[in-house]
Design a protein that fits this description.
The chain has about 180 residues and is an alpha/beta fold. The chain contains 8 helices and 4 strands.
């Protein structure tokens, strides 16, 4: 759960989250590990292009939510985020409010969203429409942002595997 968005929940909502999930949000520690330990290790061990424009993060469900949070919190590190079946309902959609003030510069960043229409994903479209409005308001265009709906796809690794090539192509293709 994106920590700074979580912190904006009411005390009652935080208590409910903790009761349901076993702990508060500690995702800032996770992101700190990624940018200060894991990425430097990878960049020093392997031949990489360590610059922001060549560094992307991607995940599905809560992984999609944390990927969006990562690009907002570390826009100097991540040039793009792939967010598959982004679990916007977490925390009653609190990440949507966070997006309004924290999205990175659309001239230097790319963001991909998608969702299916079955199982858990069937509840995502209203949230994704709100996210899309925020993206438009922040100046993202079809060169820097994509949202795709997959009719009949469920919330599963099988569905994400079937379409993972789409965000990879979008993020890895230069938009100039």
């Amino acid at each position: 759960m994106p920590q700074k968005a979580f912190e904006k929940l009411s005390e009652t909502e935080k208590t409910e989250w903790i009761a349901q999930h076993g702990s508060a949000a500690f995702s800032d520690r996770y992101l700190q590990f990624l940018v200060s330990e894991l990425k430097p290790f990878i960049d020093s061990t392997f031949r990489t292009r360590p610059q922001r424009e060549s560094t992307f993060i991607m995940g599905s469900s809560m992984g999609g939510l944390i990927s969006l949070y990562a690009i907002c919190e570390y826009p100097e590190v991540f040039g793009g985020a792939g967010c598959l079946s982004t679990h916007f309902p977490a925390g009653k959609g609190i990440m949507l409010e966070y997006m309004k003030d924290h999205l990175p510069d659309p001239s230097t960043h790319k963001i991909y969203f998608d969702y299916g229409t079955e199982t858990v994903d069937k509840d995502y479209e209203p949230y994704q429409r709100q996210a899309d409005e925020i993206m438009k308001a922040k100046g993202y265009t079809n060169k820097t942002w994509m949202t795709r709906k997959f009719v009949g796809d469920e919330h599963s690794e099988r569905a994400w595997r079937k379409r993972v090539h789409i965000p990879l192509q979008f993020l890895l293709t230069h938009s100039d």
